Amino acid sequence: MTKLTLGAHPYLLGFDELERLVERTAKSGNDGYPPYNIEQTSATSYRITLAVAGFRMDDLQITLEDRALVIRGRQTDDNDGRVFLHRGIAARQFQRSFVLADGVEVGDAVMENGLLHVDLTKSQPETVVQTINIKKG
Fold it and tell me: Which of 49, 52, 75, 85 could covalently link to 91 via disulfide, CB atoms 3.0 to 4.6 Å apart?
């Protein structure tokens, strides 16, 4: 029995990029840090919230790379000569990626109470009907 992949299905032409996108997302292997929520705030908008307690705004970077929203955090280790008897809050760096569909745009990013909120909006695709003329060959 032959296994048909999404990109090889005869009725789905030009979807090979979608198959590569699914594979890339599955291999990203985020380790669960920092924890995050994704909520739908309206029919066409979403909000990603990351728990980034201990990070300053200067420690965070948000970029859009090839339809992927990438959020990076890198804390500077400023001990200032302090001696820790126990260090349970580590200066840990992270990278969290979210693949965005066509038509999804990144809006505002707001930091409040140790939470980073990134708003996304999805534009409604226009329904296009096109008639193709048949030429005599």
Answer: 75
